[in-house]
Amino acid sequence: MTLSEPGLARSSNEPADSLNLWRARLRRWWAEFSLQTKLLAVATLVVSLLMTGITFLALNGIQRDARMSDTRFARDLGLLLSANVAPLVAEGNDRELASVAERFWQSSRSLRYIFFADPDGVIYLGIPMGGSTGMGERLLSRRLELPADIQRRPDNPLIRQHLTPDGQVTDVFVPMVSDGRYLGVVALGINPNETLLASAALTREVTVAVFVSIWVLVILGSVFNALTITQPVKELLRGVRSIAGGNFETRIALPVGGELGELLNGFNTMASQLEVYKAANIEELTAAQVKQQSLIATMADGAVLLDADGLIVLANPTARRLFRWEGRNLEGSQLSAELPDRLAMELHNPLESLILSERDNTEVRCSFGDPPRTLRIVLQSVRDATGESLKGIAMTIQDLTREVELNAAQSRFISNVSHELRTPLCNIKSYVETLHDMGDLLSPDEQKEFLSIANAETDRLSRLVTDVLDLSRLESDRVWQLEPMDLAPAIEQTLRTYRLNAEEKGVSLIFAADQHLPRVRGNWDLLLQVFDNLVGNGLKFTRSGGQLLLRAYPWPDHCLLDPGTSPGEHPSCALTSPLPRLRVEIADTGCGISEVDQARIFERFFRVENAVHTEAGTGLGLSIVRGILEKHGSHAHMASEPGVGTTFWFDLPLEDADGDELQVQVERSTMAEVDKVRPIPVT
Description:
This protein is α+β, with helices and mostly antiparallel strands. Helices cover 52% and strands 18% of the residues. It contains 16 helices and 17 strands. The strands form four sheets. It has a five-stranded antiparallel beta sheet with strand order 2-1-5-4-3. The protein is rod-shaped, with a radius of gyration of 66 Å. The relative contact order is 0.05. Residues 1-6, 130-140, 610-615 and 673-683 have low confidence and may be disordered.
């Protein structure tokens, strides 16, 4: 019994599940119709039900009137027959009674039957009589069951209606009374009025026809509505939704005329214009996006675009270089996860304040990396047109490393210049004040000595100012003209200038070069200053008996061709250069420079004599040399060893060198952050 209970439960739930399923299907089917169709169906149903109800009430009224008319007719006819046959029944004249009944039955087409029953209700005469004896016997043997009080109301017969296989019949039972004596009952069966029956049938048929016509019209109207109104409206609604979704290729192709056709044609025209407008906008937006991307990509500053959650959307090449992001896919990555830890910590709070809309912009300056780099990071929120919704954050990164170094170098330069100017000025002031205050107390030799010292300090001050002006002129944006020139005359002029000093000091000046040196591209005055500084330094640090050698030769040098070159092969040389040069070397046999000092020899105001000897100088000569050579697209190199000597060399472009390539090298040399040269030890 227990095992059968789940089966019984499922059997009992199956009808409910089936009913729920049909209800759900009916709801879905009803929900597919538009509101207009639903209202039309409901209105049609209400009208049809109202018309049907009115017709039904009218039909009932007609049928009620027909029944009342049949009842009155049957009563009158029964009373008439009862009055005519009552004397015959009282006399017992059955033959005459039958004759009268026969004539009466034949005179009216409405009579269905006539029965005569005795006081006990036994039928003894009936018209029509059956065609056989058996029928007559059956009729005569029947008995009527009538109310007991019918004999007391001769003027109020019993009337009833019943339905037979041949139609509806009105039965009239009239008591026959003669001289106060109850003789029995005459029963009449009367057919209903044919005219009324035909009217009722016609009314019923008209009602059915009207009902069917209404629903046929409703169905036809629905089909017409679906074909001419609902379907185009649905297609139009679907097209509007598609256009709203951004699909401007949507078109509606329905053979509809009239105002709906004009509406659909207008929709198609609008969609075509929107499609053209979209294509034009996409082209403009693409061009604008390409311009923006090109602008961002070529920015000297780094640029990073973040979304509202702090995720990276775009990073230009400068930002990738600054943060070492080359070759990495950063889109969708968290900014804090891609930055160095120190920088991420410094940017966390400012970035969080922009994401939470606590501020619109902020600025952070920080240093990181090895070697350290100084960055200025500006964060700016990007909002929509209303200024309420945060769309993203624009981050601009400026590399201030060079500016910081230049500011520091400028500060050091100003400090050094101030120091270098203060020393001779103080010396001049001291000796001049001494001469002024104690002129009469000093001997002529002392006065001459003081004036000699003041004059020497003045010369020193003049040299310092001249060197500072030369260095400032080289670091300006002035464009120096490089023209073809012979280098040998400039070297010879420099040697003639220093030959007397060299002879006094016992130093030999030697110039070793070919008689026909190739012409170079350079500036005569600047190169003359280079030779003057280098020869002057070499002569100053070379002891008596030493020598100062100047050499000039093409570089790379010529090479010997291989005599075993096969016929048809082009001769080749292992030493070739795409930009031929003329190398110049200035070598002395002086005291040399230590490796520690070699690393700083080209720095401003650096003087080796501070640690090695006491020769005077401003410490700007080699800085000026380096600046001049950079203007020629070249660099100064050196090799030195204490106690052996020092050699400086540099390369100059030849006359037929490529001017564009040379200009590129000059710009690279000018922009390069090279404050030191790599020393090459002499072996």
